[in-house]
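Protocol step 4 of 6.
Sequence for adenosine deaminase (Cryobacterium psychrophilum) entered exactly as in the expression construct, tag removed. Do not edit the line below.
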Amino acid sequence: MPGGGVSINTLPKISLHDHLDGGLRPQTIIELAEAIGLDLPETDVESLQKWFYDQSSAGSLVEYLKTFDVTCAVMQTRDGLFRVAKEYVEDLALDGVIYGEVRWAPEQHLARGLTLDEAVEAVQDGLEAGIEHMEAQGKSIRTGQIITAMRHADRSLEIAELAVRYRFDGVVGFDIAGAEAGFPASNHRAAFDLLAREFMPTTVHAGEADGLDSIRSALFDGRALRLGHGVRLAEDVTIERQDDDNTFVTLGPVAQWVRDREITLELCPSSNLQTGAIAAWGDELLDHPFDLLYQLGFKVTVNTDNGLMGDTTLSQELALLSDAFGYDLDDLEVFQLNAAAASFLPLEDREELTKAIVAGFADA
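Step 5 output, structure tokens:
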């Protein structure tokens, strides 16, 4: 552990890129599946967790996404959404997270009769119940919903309208997700135009399963303030030469723009290994371009993406990076300060998060 044995779990942390339908407890899946008569690939907690991890580690985003067929299936009722959202907050708080932006796609939760609005309200009620439950245990946490549209579908304008409708009732931003290659942000220009007119902040999944063209579209068509993953932005970084003490690089125009404008990268190290997003650089965490981007001054943040699929937590992701790249507490604090500054909260709230992070790390 960095800092001579300091527990990362106790440090205040910010989670920006975490999918609600990728963070369920295996026991919850089993119980919700039984209630609706859904057959599962495994029926005990340990085996089911292993199934999710193994299925998600095929080196393909397309294969990775298939596991969500199971989690979404048990999140089609108000009770299911409420429980999953409540437990999501509890798990974050127990991991030391003081603010979490949870993204999810309401359009994927209508199979049992819920409307889009009812789904959003069920999740918000669950989040608030989780916050109240953890406050009773002496842990402070707040949340914000990021309403997500599926990029391979044609409902993005409707989902953008939904996000705007609930912007003062728990929703803080908008995203598009799903299979990236072949489905650029430009396909959803009408939705992003609406969001821009309404001054609703956006993050866009880009630079995970597709390269620089996808990132360009996220920035131009999506007006993205943050890049979901964005790891393949490193394709626009050319290493000219390297010696024992220095690495000399040239930034291409996309990378230069992202760095100079301080557009935040929502990096998800373990997930990027599982989906093959960093295959161009290698297949181990040490090969991840996270450290290169960090050392070059990009606004990097650390995220889980999907705790169930990766069998991980935010604290574990930070520990893995610390082991791989020798980060200390000062580095981990930078990642949290970057995340606080990039959150979709008002300035005053972001400043409060910053103060809490600085205070928490000072006490470590």
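Step 6, annotate. The chain has a mean pLDDT of 96.
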